[in-house]
């Protein structure tokens, strides 16, 4: 039986993928926005099965996300390998102390990665191209200085000195999109194939009208000629009810066996035109005809299933559904909101528990709360946790399901005149208590299940489950309502809600899985 690949290859909020090959190994990075550590990096040998090997930016000295707004932070990285060194180039958007484009380097993909080399280049979505003569070219996106329409961007080129890590020489404008009046021509990558230089971009905005287009030239600096087959990929003409939408932001890779593939982002709407999982990473085959690429030959659409690449299968050991917090460090899939500047958790103070310290920072603020979360990766899922917590007045601990500080659910144990379990829905910056029940002090187990957009919230103190709220509408966790660029995260959360505290919550385990 022929092996199959199943899309998406990285489910959940893993947008703006970039890929490179080193011999028989493939490495992929994605955007991470306001979450820390930054830029998850994955390894594969068959392009189907991926395992995370770390983060590119895993030290506070590399990444200042203090007070950064939701869906700002790290945008659209590019990963490349040249002459024994890995390069990741990226944009930090709206940083408090510094913003702009930078490069980090490493000799192995799992790191350690260097401190950032900041570049004097405006705009977003930088990429690197290493030419046959050893010259390195920076290709980026910035606003057209005349701005003939809102979102009028253009792609530019400048040479990069790899020793000094600075840009020099003339800035050359290459292109501003294939469609008249196109918005947000961005995400440029240059490749050299059979003597031609190809410039691949995204255009149309990273939502329903997203598209991939391409031009070529015999010189890296142009002029570039367009392709009459543009766009080479889009789903914008297939309707709002199509199961895969927003296809774009692609990067190409050639296998050691001469096959070509593209990674790209797309969304899977459900419960209407809502996509709580955010923009995910998909893989599609590419074939060259008449010196231009044909994406997903035969259909021109991103499919959920394809024949597997002609590569030896490599299946990695899967993450356990349940994390018992017995290791000395957190698993790579766990994330913080913004850069942690304080000691907000411990895995050693109580062996086998994740201890979250109650701090004044709250989920409703653009701060670094006591929050350890992971991406929602399934349309239908179950998440549950068990923890010990003795609440003082106005303190809370439990689960959070978040899209941003203004759109989320807080499912927490707290104390007013007595211990209570409370479900709070925050929409458009306003809190609404959906349900409360009293409960005894001690150990608590909380569980959330979702069937598409119907969320159910359960709690237990003695092994007997009680339903606190059922069929709660989860659409506030989707970009079409909440805005921004990120998907939903599910987190263990604790807060003293603006007051100093020495209290803590001890989480014994956390379990997450898709459900049938």
Record keyword descriptors for this entry.
516 residues; mainly beta; Tachylectin-2, Chain A; Jelly Rolls; 2 domains; eight-stranded antiparallel sheet; six-stranded antiparallel sheet; 50% strand
What's the arrangement of secondary structure elements?
Layout: E1 4-6, E2 18-22, E3 25-29, E4 35-36, E5 38-44, E6 51-57, E7 73-82, E8 85-93, E9 100-106, E10 117-118, E11 124-130, E12 136-143, E13 153-161, E14 166-175, E15 186-193, E16 196-203, E17 211-217, E18 225-226, E19 233-234, E20 245-254, E21 260-267, E22 280-289, E23 292-295, E24 305-307, E25 322-323, E26 336-337, E27 345-346, E28 354-357, E29 370-375, E30 381-389, E31 396-404, E32 407-415, E33 419-427, E34 430-438, E35 442-451, E36 454-460, E37 466-473, H1 479-482, E38 489-495, E39 504-514
Antiparallel strand pairs: 1-24, 2-3, 3-5, 4-26, 5-6, 7-8, 8-9, 9-10, 11-12, 12-13, 13-14, 15-16, 16-17, 17-18, 17-19, 20-21, 21-22, 22-23, 25-39, 27-28, 28-39, 29-38, 30-35, 30-39, 31-32, 31-38, 32-33, 33-34, 35-36, 36-37
Task: Provide structural commentary.
The structure is a single chain. This protein is mostly beta strands and 516 residues long. It folds into 2 domains: 13-231, Tachylectin-2, Chain A, CATH 2.115.10; 322-514, Jelly Rolls (Sandwich), CATH 2.60.120.200. It is 1% helix and 50% strand. The protein contains 1 helix and 39 strands. The chain has one helix spanning 479-482; strands at 4-6, 18-22, 25-29, 35-36, 38-44, 51-57, 73-82, 85-93, 100-106, 117-118, 124-130, 136-143, 153-161, 166-175, 186-193, 196-203, 211-217, 225-226, 233-234, 245-254, 260-267, 280-289, 292-295, 305-307, 322-323, 336-337, 345-346, 354-357, 370-375, 381-389, 396-404, 407-415, 419-427, 430-438, 442-451, 454-460, 466-473, 489-495, 504-514. The strands form 9 sheets. Strands 25, 27, 28, 30, 35, 36, 37 and 39 form an 8-stranded antiparallel sheet that branches. A 6-stranded antiparallel sheet has the order 29-38-31-32-33-34, with no helix packed on it. The protein is globular, with a radius of gyration of 23 Å. The two termini are 25 Å apart. 47% of the residues are buried. The mean pLDDT is 97.
């Amino acid at each position: 039986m022929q092996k199959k690949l199943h899309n998406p290859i990285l489910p959940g909020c893993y947008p703006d993928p970039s890929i490179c090959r080193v011999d028989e190994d493939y490495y992929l990075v994605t955007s991470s926005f306001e979450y820390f550590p930054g830029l998850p990096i994955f390894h594969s040998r068959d392009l189907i099965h991926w395992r995370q090997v770390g983060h590119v930016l895993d030290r506070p000295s590399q990444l200042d996300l203090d007070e950064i707004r939701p869906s700002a932070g790290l945008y659209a990285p590019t990963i490349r390998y040249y002459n024994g060194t890995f390069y990741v180039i990226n944009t930090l958007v709206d940083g408090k102390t510094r913003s702009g484009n930078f490069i980090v380097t490493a000799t192995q993909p799992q790191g350690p990665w260097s401190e950032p080399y900041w570049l004097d280049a405006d705009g977003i979505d930088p990429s690197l191209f290493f030419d046959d003569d050893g010259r390195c070219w920076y290709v980026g996106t910035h606003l057209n200085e005349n701005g003939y329409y809102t979102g009028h961007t253009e792609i530019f080129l400048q040479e990069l000195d790899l020793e000094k890590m600075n840009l020099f020489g003339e800035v050359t404008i290459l292109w501003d999109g294939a469609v008249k009046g196109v918005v947000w021509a961005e995400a440029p990558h240059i490749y050299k194939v059979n003597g031609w230089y190809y410039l691949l971009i995204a255009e149309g905005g990273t939502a329903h009208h997203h598209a991939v287009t391409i031009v070529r030239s015999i010189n890296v600096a142009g002029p570039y000629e367009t392709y009459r087959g543009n766009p080479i990929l889009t789903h914008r003409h297939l309707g709002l009810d199509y199961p895969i939408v927003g296809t774009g932001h692609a990067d190409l890779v050639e296998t050691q066996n001469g096959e070509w593939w593209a990674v790209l982002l797309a969304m899977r709407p459900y419960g209407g035109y809502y996509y709580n999982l955010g923009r995910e990473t998909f893989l599609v085959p590419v074939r060259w005809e008449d010196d231009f690429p044909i994406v997903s030959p035969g259909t021109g659409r991103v499919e959920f299933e394809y024949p597997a690449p002609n590569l030896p299968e490599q299946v990695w050991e899967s993450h356990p559904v349940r994390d018992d917090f017995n290791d000395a460090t957190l698993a790579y899939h766990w994330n913080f909101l913004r850069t942690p500047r304080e000691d907000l958790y411990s895995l050693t103070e109580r062996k086998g528990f994740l201890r979250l310290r109650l701090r004044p920072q709250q989920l409703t603020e653009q701060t670094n709360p006591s929050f350890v979360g992971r991406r929602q990766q399934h349309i239908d899922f179950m998440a549950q946790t068990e923890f010990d917590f003795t609440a003082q007045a106005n303190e809370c601990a439990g689960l959070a399901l978040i899209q941003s500080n203004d759109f989320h659910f807080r499912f927490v144990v707290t104390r007013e005149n007595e211990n209570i379990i409370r479900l709070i829905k925050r929409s458009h910056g306003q809190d609404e208590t959906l349900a409360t029940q009293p409960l005894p002090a001690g150990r608590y187990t909380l569980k959330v299940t979702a069937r598409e957009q119907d969320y159910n919230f359960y709690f237990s103190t003695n092994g007997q489950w009680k339903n606190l709220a059922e069929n709660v509408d989860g659409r506030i966790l989707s970009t079409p309502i909440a805005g921004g660029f990120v998907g939903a995260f599910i987190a263990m959360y604790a807060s003293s809600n603006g007051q100093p505290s020495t209290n803590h919550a001890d989480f014994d385990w956390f379990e997450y899985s898709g459900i049938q």
